[in-house]
Amino acid sequence: MVDIATRVYNHKWKIDPIVRSLIDTDFYKLLMCQSVFRNKPDTNVTFSLINRSKSIRLADIIDEGALREQLDHMRSLSLSRGESTWLRGNTFYGKRQMFRSDFMEWFEGMRLPPYHLEKRDGQYELTFEGKWHEVMLWEIPALAILMELRSRAVLSDMGRFELQVLYARAMTKVWEKVETLRDLPTLRLADFGTRRRHSFLWQDWCVQAMREGLGEHFVGTSNCLIAMRREMEAIGTNAHELPMVYSALAEDDAALRDAPYKVLADWQDEHEGNLRIILPDTYGTQGFLQGAPDWLAGWTGMRIDSGDPATGAERAIAWWKARGEDPTQKLVIFSDGLDVDKILELQKQFQGRVRVSFGWGTLLTNDFRGLVPNEGLAPFSLVCKAVAANGQPTVKLSDNPNKAMGPKAEVERYKRVFDLDAQEPMDVIV
């Protein structure tokens, strides 16, 4: 097992680069990338960094030169022969050759496109612009780089002994979570923590701890590199990015209203089984379900990623029943701001009513709360989102108005088109 404290104390980034592979990313990114490569190859998209936690002044914490070095290193990476072999030949979700040969040929020759970086008001403005299937691959590594550079900055003045104690305490914290969860007989849990992890080495350790402590109840990781190295399942389906861009491309209100369903129709053409998971909340879950075509009810399950999770699950159950489906055979994946108490609560509430699963993110791979002065390592809400497509702004409404994004006029238009009622604001933890 890696001595993380010693590596942190001795680290030189050229030895321990923050992102060390193009597949050090979430599995759903690669699945979506293939879909975009097939369906929207000529779409130009702009991604932008958004720090929802304004009190965290990243440009005051992270050295610009160090950030540029890591971003430039990321642009030097290409797919290795072993990584290509794994993607081409491995079985994902029961399907061999998940990634088509034309996509793989492109991916094997791909290098990430340029970035644009500026400082403004204590924050970094980081943007990526180009063909959608190219720039979308920046999202996960860009977030991982910024999160780990912040961690490195906070840890830089700690001595070897202090670091050993810090990581011992953090490991104990993770293991206590494992011990709390391991007695749940029907638990199904995966690591979703790549984007806002403390570090790559720490995410890898957390995955090993989950696997050791939870056994078969730990079903895999969203991180492709860790999945490959640890010989476990790569987990993921699709994200808000798809309906956000499809909607921005819509020519009128009618096309806009239909865009979220067009996304899933394209997805259905490519995937079966447990990859057919509905993400309904981009423009409000209630309206999405009311307008959903009947064929969507036959999909395997639904991911609940904003708003009150119990309310979201109850809506899903009621919708399936109304469409003549048996909710007990459906999969509900909870993935928003989870920690142990919420996992226990939701497992108890919905066990036997649906097949319950959890995608555990930031508070698995970056929970250093209470371990350093002034909460210097506490997680915060940093995202990298598609903000424009072919020159048109994107919009996200969510089931939590505090997660909404987009120009005010477009937000109001989307609320009208999707008939979004008043929503209850909720704190955005991560």
CATH architecture call:
Alpha-Beta Barrel
Average pLDDT confidence is 95
> Terminal Cα separation, in Å?
29 Å
Number of helices, where a helix is a run of at least 4 consecutive DSSP H or I residues: 18
Number of domains: 1
- What is the number of beta strands? 13
Shape: globular
Name of the level-1 CATH class: Alpha Beta
| CATH fold name | nicotinate phosphoribosyltransferase
For the biggest sheet, the summary is: 6 strands, parallel
How would you name the CATH homologous superfamily?
A: nicotinate phosphoribosyltransferase
Uncertain spans: none
Our Rg estimate from Cα atoms comes to 21 Å
- Residue share in helices? 40-55%
Beta fraction: 5-15%
> Largest beta sheet: what is the strand line-up?
7-6-11-10-9-8
* Oligomer status: single chain
Class by alpha and beta content:
alpha/beta
Would you write up a description of this structure?
The chain has 430 residues and is α/β, with parallel strands linked by helices. The chain has one domain (4-417): nicotinate phosphoribosyltransferase, CATH 3.20.140.10. It contains 18 helices and 13 strands. It has helices at residues 4-10, 27-39, 58-61, 64-76, 81-89, 101-109, 132-135, 139-155, 160-181, 200-214, 224-230, 241-248, 253-270, 285-291, 309-322, 340-350, 362-365, 408-417; strands at residues 44-51, 91-92, 95-96, 116-120, 123-131, 189-191, 218-221, 277-278, 301-304, 331-334, 355-360, 382-389, 392-393. The strands form three sheets. The chain has a six-stranded parallel β-sheet. A five-stranded antiparallel β-sheet has the order 4-5-1-12-13. Helix 12 (241-248) packs across helix 13. 45% of the residues are buried.
